[in-house]
Amino acid sequence: MLLAATTLLLASTTFAAEDWTTPAEASDYQRTPRHAETMAYFERLDAASPAVTMIGMGRSAQGRAMQAVILASDGIATPESARASGKPVILIQAAIHPGENEGKDVLMALARDLVLGADAPLLEPVILVLLPIFNVDGHERFSPYNRINQNGPEAMGWRATAQNLNLNRDYTKADTPEMQAWLRLWQRWQPDLLIDMHNTNGADYQYAMTWAFESGPNIHPALVSWQRAVFDGAVKPKLAEMGWPVAFYVSMKEWGKLSAGLTEGASTPRFSVGYAAAAGRPGLLLETHMVKDFRTRVAVNAVLLRELLREIGRDPGALKSAVAKADGERFAPGVEIPLAFGLSEASEPMDFLGYEEVRTPSEISGADWVRYDQDKPVTLSLPVQREITVTASSPAPAAYLVPPQWSSVIERLHLHGVRMQRLPEARTLEAGRHRFGEVAWAPRPFEGRHQLTTLESTLETVEIEAPAGSWLIPMDQPRARLVAQLLEPAAPDSFIRWGFFDAIFEEKEYAEARVMERIAREMLAADPALEAEFEERLKDAAFAADPRARLRFFYERSPYFDSAWKRYPVLRLDGEALRGLGL
Asked: Is residue 273 helix, strand or coil?
């Protein structure tokens, strides 16, 4: 181990340790507490210190109460007073995947030490919003068999919610009551930094902690600069000095084969730190290593969070300034907004602290059995792909317009804190609209939905009547980057990709052959160009041999065909159209 597992986890304290020992500590890191025991501990802290305030967030799918814990040295307990204080607000969440439990146990001990112990000075420059158990239903699906790859504790929660949904894939679509509660908390408190605590799977290596944060075109440059200065420039070397080296989140180019190299890409906003980036906030994903024992995983989290709070406290204004710059970001009409991202083939070498890999042919699987010899630490030189490319973008409109009938989309936009207003009356206007061609869905559900995997699109200009009550969404707002991620079809986590607009791909009327036979003849007689087009299509043998396709050729070109089929109902307005609304 890089640091003995018996390392003291707690700062020196000014309170009776036996009164405030956490369940994990009391069990010598053999067990983690259940939901009721966890929240009872925070309730005791709330009663013991004016620096602690527990707040309700809502209820889970099974009806369990979701609670957050506010820590503020001066007793601040509301978003309004937090903003008035000028202090940065930091949201630290754990147990979004409750099998990966140690974040919750760390927050219990950290909260105690910040409000009752020697770490109190670390709390003075900041306000913390703690979410000890995000996925409360998954947490209570308690079993010793929930994390096959993980080294302790004796039992823990389950990865998914009671609806079998992964909350760390739900940030944009917000299908779960848990995520909807989180978004309301996020909008009310508007944190300046998100920290999301996890436990990783994958290969074995020496690092007890890896982390990830966004640094590509999916996040404002001011936030990138702040993250690099604080995370990489200050906290990382300090942790290394203390015997806790940190590496970027281990994402193998080939699963189970470290030697093939690593990748460091950009997260889409379905994920926590990807969402924070789209919403104009820095985010830090913490991933302890599942092979390390429970005590070690708690220890590295505790050390890291204290060092991070110490570093932020040295210059809290730097974080506030970076966030203000991100909030001031605007995309003028026509400026390209990056929507989807990939990696170039370029790579650079990285020294990686691993273990000697042992591969033996397996008579069980027929493949290699991969093991790691922890008695033989090695430093590997691995190629890392980290040059992020933009694979899809769109010129920014001046505004979007969403018709009122798409209520589930409008509800989600409100949850995401998007600024918008309603049209008081129907208006005819010129707008951009996507017309879709080839469309295909994933054959299996993913997170409760069948995602669109193929979506061919052409942007056309139309004159159209927008109904009264339509929602106008100007891009002159802090959430502009997020708005594009939610509404642009090319964005991988857009509402249309998640199936919110699937009904536009269904045909509700059809033409009988006996009727189209007559109408087709009338159309051919009236339009020589159409006749020439039809003759050209007949050169395609498959088309020529298909009576239904031949009649559909005419139906699609007739005034009877559904003009809304495969037309995206979300309109794009340019500056002139927006000004013409006079709103």
From this structure: helix
Distance, in Å, from the CA atom of 204 to the CA atom of 291, rounded to the nearest integer, reads 7
- Structure pTM? 0.94
Are residues 56 and 64 in contact, defined by beta-carbon separation less than 8 angstroms? Answer: no
Asked whether 59 and 184 are in contact (CB, 8 A), the reply is no
Residue 512 in 3-state DSSP? coil
83-117 core/surface letters (b: 16 or more CB in 10 A; e: else): eeeebbbbbbbbbbbbbbbbbbbbbbbbbbbbbbb
- For 170-183, the pLDDT digits (tens) are 999 999 999 999 99
Instruction: Report the alpha-carbon distance of residue 377 to residue 353 in Å, rounded.
Output: 7
Q: How far is CA 538 from CA 26, 515, 522, 534, 535, in A?
A: 80, 21, 18, 6, 5
Q: How far is CA 254 from the centre of its chain?
A: 23
Q: Whole-angstrom Cα distance, residue 176 to residue 162?
A: 10
Q: What is the mean pLDDT of residues 254-277?
A: 94
Q: Which two tokens stand for residue 487?
A: 């509404």
**Exposed/middle/buried for 253, CB within 10 Å: 0-12, 13-18, 19+?**
middle
Model pLDDT for residues 465-506, shown as the tens digit of each residue: 999 999 999 999 999 999 999 999 999 999 999 999 999 999
Which of the 8 DSSP states describes residue 55?
E
Cβ atoms of 22 and 109 closer than 8 Å: yes
Cβ-based burial of 294 (10 A; exposed 0-12, middle 13-18, buried ≥19): buried
Domains of the chain in start order, with CATH, are 17-329 (3.40.630.10), 343-389 (no CATH), 390-507+564-581 (no CATH), 513-556 (no CATH)
How many Å apart are CA 303 and CA 113, to the nearest integer? 12
Cis peptide before 153 (omega within 30 of 0): yes
Residue whose pair of structure tokens reads 């600024």 in the numeric block: 419
Cα–Cα–Cα angle for 482, 483, 488, nearest 5°? 110
Q: How many CB atoms lie within 10 A of CB 343?
A: 18
pLDDT tens per residue across span 136-159 = 999 999 999 999 999 999 999 999
pLDDT, tens digit, for every residue of 48-96?
999 999 999 999 999 999 999 999 999 999 999 999 999 999 999 999 9
69 CB-contact burial (10 Å; exposed 0-12 / middle 13-18 / buried 19+): buried
Q: Per-residue b/e over 298-323, b at no fewer than 16 CB within 10 Å? A: bbbbbbbbbbbbbbbbeebebbbebb
Helices (H), 428-527: 480-487, 513-526
Contact 566, 505 (CB under 8 A): yes
